[in-house]
Amino acid sequence: MTYHPKSEFMRVMIERGYLADCTDYQGLDEALSAGVVTAYIGYDATAASLHVGHLLNIMMLRWLQKTGHQPITLMGGGTTKVGDPSFRSEERPLLTPEQIDANIAGMKQVFARYLDYSDAPNGALMLNNAEWLDGLNYLEFLRDIGRHFSVNRMLSFESVKSRLDREQSLSFLEFNYMILQAYDFLELNRRYGCVLQMGGSDQWGNIVNGIDLTRRVLDREIYGLTSPLLTTSDGRKMGKSAGGAVWLSGAMLSPYEFWQFWRNTTDADVGRFLKLYTELPVAECDRLGALEGSEINDAKIVLANAVTTLLHGAEAAAAAEATAREVFEKGGLGEDLPTLTLGANDIGAGISLAQLVVRSGLAKTGKDGKRLIAEGGLKVDDETCTDAGRMFAAADLAEPVKLSAGKKRHARVQLG
User: Fold this and answer.
1) pLDDT, tens only, 163-175
2) Where is the short sequence motif 'HIGH' region located (predicted)?
3) pTM of the model as a whole
4) Where are the domains positioned within the chain?
5) Is 177 annotated as a binding residue?
6) What is the homologous superfamily of the domain 8-227 according to CATH?
7) At 196, is the secondary structure helix, strand, or coil?
8) 3 state SS of 276
9) 40 among the known binding-site residues?
């Protein structure tokens, strides 16, 4: 990137590695320098929480607000009813309006940790595209909006093309998604003066559609900016762990498990993740990322503490670090570990080790649990146990028991 921005926001985007592409670098930079710019990112309500895969774009909105501009978090109350087909091999399952509303309520709690939704001049707005999509008249929409879209051009977008090339079905419902997303940008510009849409680079085609539509209908200049689709240095999709999605909701993933996800970052990713997911100065991120040997572990703790503090608060980060030290350095049983609490009814005449491993979340299925145990990958109170059928009675759990899968994943089992 040889472009030297005038605006603080564009400088942050480039320096910290958030920028993949932009429809007009200079035009957007000048708009950002001239006054407050309103920008949005859209989030479909397909789950009760956002996950780590969303965090990079949430940080972009946070930096936008920190540099004096106004972020909009657009909840897809309308578009979730259709489902984004971008780079998916199959159609999304359709959700009921009640499920969508419940998911939006859960996601709002996460956004409030990163953005200021106050009445400040650049206070963030939380909007729902059902506001304008639910009441659309189909014939009017086709006549006023649909005529601006070329099917030939839509078929050329990579997200659609990849699906058709593999001869996978693309329903008419999904094909409408990109028209609806383009219409969102038009309506946000018309109603709220929004001039910038941001998103992952897989959203480039959808963003460009919205810019073209707004130019044709309102004759206004607006912009698009995309972030790179992140993979870890070993090629895995960012946000996935051995236990599944890394949720941002404390009710779905404990602060300790969240902290541990970042503590387990691969050495080669530390510097990059510090720039993207914390607010530490760039020079400090580079210094920490260049550490080697045992010192890189100190940098990982800085990363885990900084990211966890932003989401769950400084106390939760400190408690997670204390638990990690207790478990890893002293072989103790940390109070903050993921905990499975069993009642007498759960145990009955006894419960097997394989069942405990699954119920505590250390394995997804009984088969996975038995394999883990048979291969010597499980410890009970720091002693390797290879007997999947080992039974635990209530008396065996009178004191909490620590289960460890490998070196990094632990859980407590206790009586309620």
Assistant:
1) 777 777 777 776 7
2) 45-54
3) 0.79
4) 8-227, 254-329, 339-415
5) yes
6) HUPs (3.40.50.620)
7) strand
8) helix
9) yes
